[in-house]
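Appendix B. Chain record.
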Amino acid sequence: MKERFVTALYLTAWFAVPRLPERWAASLFRLFADIAWRRQGTGVQRLEANLLRVEPAASGKRLRALSRAGMRSYMRYWMETFRLPTYDRDRVVGSMTVENWAAVEKCLESGRGALLALPHMGNWDHAGAWVAMTGTPFTTVVERLHPDSLFERFLAHRRGLGMEVLPHTGSGLVAGTLARRLRDGGLVCLPADRDLNGSGVEITLFGEPALLAGGPAVLAMRTGAALFPVTLWFTDEGPDGEPAGWVARVHDEVPVPSGGDRTAKAAAMTQALADVFTAGIAAHPQDWHMLQPIFLADLAAAGPGEGVPA
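Structure tokens predicted for this chain:
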């Protein structure tokens, strides 16, 4: 019953939200964010626990203000996701600033594959649409959701934006396809701040042990592709409450260490990603949409279902 309700809710949003005036949609989703924030459900509590790692000295008042801003940012992501298929090229490309994209273009022009690893920040769907609309095909992976009808809708949404989307199954087939794309000199974009397989790499994030996906580092080593961390954030909202713009920063390539075995090299590269994510999230904590446990202390005490995206 819960799955049917959630599916109906998402499908209704995909139909109705693009038909609302943008100002109305923005106001409505801020209201949803504030209601969820006041209810203090599991997702909001987990968001606050994660944000407390970002700002460990935050007062209770500061933490509550930060989590409210975080929920508004998260709901802005969803509002834009439902409306994104209606945005034209001028809106997607013209309202987004991408810093250091030339490093990725230089890599691809040389015939070398590039892998962008990013945390759940800002609007990663909008960033993907920007990449596709500026003429660079790329491949990504989407987490499998239930029920299947909802999952298929997410696949169709991202494919409609110009992405090649592979369903995450936890098998080697997906990794093999990604490796082929990279060896062929293509671009792959992967979320990297959650461990979906239960085999993540233990790193230090904000001074505390956490698990991050080890796949990006392993793929980069296997294929010789360049590994670039990316951080994303929203610009301030416009005077009437409408979304104003988006920023993505491509950071310097993470090199493969010269010493150690492959496991040690992958761990070092994943830690390098975590260090970049730490700095990026600290600069824009409200735009880190992490409503699931990733720190080891929280994973040990996580309740059932907390691995499911909120």
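Further analysis of this model is presented in Appendix C.
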